[in-house]
Design goal:
3 strands; 2 helices; alpha+beta; about 90 residues
């Protein structure tokens, strides 16, 4: 006997899901969970790498386990950020 009304809404989740810096045995390791290559979030990705650089990260763990793909242009951004090196 109840009437329920639903409204359609597009939900966008930031694919830069989680990032942190882990310090172990004198190393600073950047850890990034990146869930999809979406170009509208490329600046968020750049900000993570700027933070890694500012914190002296010299190793990277890139977790793509939940990444379903996306835009090639975003993959290029990510690879260029890695290619520039982290300290």
């Amino acid at each position: 006997g109840k009437t329920i009304s639903l409204t359609k809404e597009e939900v966008k989740e930031n694919p830069v899901h989680f990032s942190t810096v882990i310090e172990k045995d004198g190393k600073k390791i950047g850890y990034l969970v990146y869930t999809q290559f979406i170009s509208s979030y490329d600046n968020d990705l750049r900000n993570v790498f700027a933070d890694f650089k500012a914190k002296g990260v010299n190793e990277l763990v890139l977790d793509l386990r939940f990444n379903g793909g996306g835009y090639t242009s975003s993959a290029v951004v990510l690879s260029s950020l890695i290619g520039k090196g982290i300290n």
